[in-house]
């Protein structure tokens, strides 16, 4: 039996139930704004003061994106984050490493972007692989680490 996904049901029992069925349709009535925009078919109110944008239900296939690689070119990605469920990895190897943590996301922006792309619950492609292509080594020093 497929159960409708609603925000109040994001508890451990629901997580376990959903993890056993990686592909099933879901509807989230009060999804975050970035997910509502995908199902809207129209421009949404961009005001954060107006509450849930327009109460548009987000239609999604949970687990969608399986087998797809999403490359995140940003400040780095916390590939160990639990919402990536082991689907995140570093692109290659680090050629310049001064502190032993060259792929770590010390800012948090890259991990947030990766979460919007493919994290469990909040990502648009919840089954996709996340590939970390860190682009800056330290503040104000940009470079590709491949």
Structure keywords:
about 150 residues; alpha/beta; 2 domains; 3-stranded parallel β-sheet; two-stranded antiparallel ribbon; about 20% helix; elongated; Peptidase_S8/S53_dom; Peptidase S8/S53 domain-containing protein; Peptidase_S8_subtilisin-like; Peptidase_S8_His-AS
Structural class: alpha/beta
Biggest sheet character: 3 strands, parallel
List the helices and strands in order: HEHEEEHEEE
Shape: elongated
Helix run count: 3
Write down how many β-strands occur, each being a DSSP E stretch of 2 or more residues: 7
User: How helix-rich are the residues, as a percent range?
Assistant: 10-25%
Count the domains: 2
Chain oligomer state: single chain
Nearest-angstrom radius of gyration?
Answer: 17 Å
pLDDT < 50 stretches: 1-18
Which whole number gives the mean pLDDT?
A: 73
The rounded distance between the terminal residues' Cα atoms is: 44 Å
Strand order of the largest sheet: 3-5-4
Determine the strand fraction and express it as a percent band. Answer: 15-25%
Protein name: Peptidase S8/S53 domain-containing protein
Family: Belongs to the peptidase S8 family.
Keywords: Hydrolase, Protease, Serine protease
GO molecular function, one term: serine-type endopeptidase activity
């Amino acid at each position: 039996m497929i159960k409708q996904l609603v925000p109040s049901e994001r508890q451990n029992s629901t997580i376990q139930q959903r993890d056993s069925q990686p592909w099933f349709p879901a509807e989230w009535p009060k999804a975050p704004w970035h997910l509502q925009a995908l199902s809207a078919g129209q421009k949404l109110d961009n005001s954060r003061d107006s509450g849930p944008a327009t109460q548009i239900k987000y239609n999604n296939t949970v687990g969608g994106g399986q087998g797809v690689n999403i490359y995140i070119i940003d400040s780095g990605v916390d590939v160990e984050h639990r919402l990536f469920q082991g689907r995140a990895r570093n692109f290659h190897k680090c050629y310049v490493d001064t502190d032993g943590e060259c792929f770590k996301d010390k800012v948090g922006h890259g991990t947030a972007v990766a979460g919007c792309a493919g994290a469990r619950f909040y990502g648009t492609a919840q089954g996709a692989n996340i590939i970390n292509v860190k682009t800056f080594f330290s503040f104000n020093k940009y470079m590709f680490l491949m």
